[in-house]
Amino acid sequence: MSAVSPDLPRLLLAPMEGLLDARLRAVVTQAARYDWCVTEFIRVTGNVLPARCYTRVAPELLNASNTVAGVPVRVQLLGSDPACLADNAHELAQLDPAGIDLNFGCPAPTVNRHRGGAVLLDEPDLLHDIASAVSRAVAGRVPFTAKMRLGVRDTARAIEAAQALADGGAQMIVVHARTKQDGYRPPAHWPWIARIAEAVAVPVVANGEIWTVDDYLRCRAESGLADVMLGRGAVADPLLAERIRAHLRGEPAREPALDWHRLAPLVAEYWQRVLAHVEPRHAAGRLKQWLNLLRRVYPQAEVLYQQLRAVRVNDEVARVLSAQTVRQVDGIAV
């Protein structure tokens, strides 16, 4: 496995179905710099999808595969048919994505029932066939990576699954340190990532339950890896990647509440992006979904969430947001 400079970790933004769509990617990647981010999965079944299916999930393909802040966007595919995935990867590569990623991590029962996501980790031979087919189809035109969990019910085949992906041609593997059965329940089993990294000849990235700088440091110590993919932690604190880099530079920690003035305009921008692309009846719910995570870190988001919690009318949401001002009260921006 290639060594990674301890001073220059790769910090990636995770795909999160139903949450981190193009609208939220646009604002989260303005808050902090990521080496790249990955889209929600695009389900591949029996057909070669038209270009519009990719640009709908990844409109960044129309912007040189970058977010508005210039962060590269890799497109994630999900499926179980090697030939069909290969055909779609071939077509997708012609759209010049920043990379193509395969999903073997989704634990959703509906996805798993249709032989997609984490359930395939019980079939290492199939994983190898899929990775080999996609690798041949992409033929080095774009980076090719995969994301996996530790297994379905247990970790018995975790190393075998990772080796199958690496031997099949995946150039990097992101490991979410939980099984499908674990879902998103803590803890994440970071030491298992170290075992996988020792067993494969490609770079490995750690993922799972990294909410704070302290979590990052513990994950790094237990996994032996500096590179991480941030998911819910980055949505709850869009400045988390910046805080990690600041800590590694030896800078003092900063109280998150003091940074709300940087996020408040992005919340307003996100609302405008949601209004432009989401059905009006779902718009308020999308904003509250993000605020519900932000309030874990920012007291100002808790205040805003409570103001909007019962609001269903978009005009009223806009009124509350426009009334939001940034002022200093006892040293805290609200």
Describe this structure in words.
The chain is α/β, with parallel strands linked by helices. α8 links the parallel β7 and β8. Residues 1-6 and 326-334 have low confidence and may be disordered. 47% of the residues are buried. The protein has two domains: 11-248, TIM Barrel (Alpha-Beta Barrel); 256-333, Bacteriocin As-48, Chain A (Up-down Bundle). It contains 14 helices and ten strands. The strands form two sheets. Strands 1-2-3-4-5-6-7-8 form an eight-stranded parallel beta barrel, surrounded by seven helices. It is globular. It has helices at residues 22-31, 51-57, 82-93, 109-113, 124-138, 158-168, 190-199, 213-223, 232-236, 240-248, 260-277, 280-294, 299-308, 314-323; strands at 11-13, 36-43, 73-78, 100-104, 144-148, 173-176, 204-207, 228-230, 328-329, 332-333. The longest helix has 18 residues, at 260-277. α7 crosses α8 and α11 runs antiparallel to α12 (280-294).
